[in-house]
Model the fold of this input.
Amino acid sequence: MNTSVYIARRYLFSKKQTHAINIISGISMLGVLVGSAALIIILSVFNGLEEVILKLYSNFTPELKIEPKLGKTFNPDEPYFLSLKKDKSIVSFTEVLEEKALIKYAERSFIGTVKGVSDDFLKGRQLDSTIQFGSFTLKDRGTDYAVIGATVQGSLGVSLKNQFIALQVYSPKRTAGNSTNPMNDFVFRSIQPSGVFGIQQDFDDIIITPLEFTRDLLEEPNRVSSLEINFKKGTDIEEIQDNIIEKIGNKYTVKNRKQQNTGLYKTINYERWSIFMILVFVLIIALFNIVGSLTMLVIDKRKDIAILTSLGAGKPLIQGIFFFEGMMISFIGCIGGIIMGSLVCLAQQHFKLIKMGSSLSVLDAYPVAFKPTDFVLVFFTVLAISVIASGISARLSVKRLDEIKKDL
Done:
């Protein structure tokens, strides 16, 4: 065993003459432990929230979305799209027609987006997980229904229990002119709401209706705004995206989920790393307590240092003792913190100890998910800061070595 490591281990685990050094060393170790545990817990909670948010988004965001580069609509009956629809790896091939519209309910009005979807929209999606009230029903016994976003419901005060008041959706006529009555320039249709969903502001201002209802409202019998495609598990989405882009040419854009929601992914990453950096600064303060702890230890071990130098120990060995002492404090605190953080996260996973605090939330407790890279990140973050703090302490240990030898 390395001499410096051996002596450092004896200093750390043997009883010191000065009780204050024990306390300071313990506080330093505890600070590293709490900081490491906090990093593991925060990163795991962010992982859990990210998984839940992206899972909710995936219910409305397809794996691939085809849109026209120019104009709002296109013909979905082109030969390539018809052949693509027959691909056996496809779970759902949804035709979508959407447009801004005026939505009225009783005396209130709201400008939102009407999204008409074909029957494939309901395939392979866990839409019930997004529902706050009612059910995700678009058709029942030949009657069309609308599922509305939480923002629409809140703005209009929609009551699903009141079957006597329906939503009235207004859209400008294609042949709108200079009529003396402005309402003559609008097409309006009534539809009963069946449910209220809640995800995020980007989606909560829309109402989802059957495609036929929206075609009738917008007077658009054939064309669509986009094609939304979902595939079977294990399908290489990137490869299929490249193939589609190659075959359909420059008239269309083909976006995967990340490209459809760049703002969402950026926000999640920014929040994650902002919190991580704040906790790292707290961890730095905790780790630099090691400097104070080792400085006290140097004072306590002045006689030992003088004896070692008299026996021929050089500055590197003396520095090594206090450097490894600091690294041991950090390592024990880090490993203990990772274990404690993991246990807290496991307890949250199984017992749902900390609740979200909202009765309308799709979650009753904070979600937690582990990523191996987080454990590696925390360990090497603590290791890097520990090397700096221990290095400073080691340099201070030999700074006044000659004075210590003279005094003794």
About this structure: Residues 19-60 form the longest helix (42 residues). The chain has two domains: 3-57+265-407, 63-257.
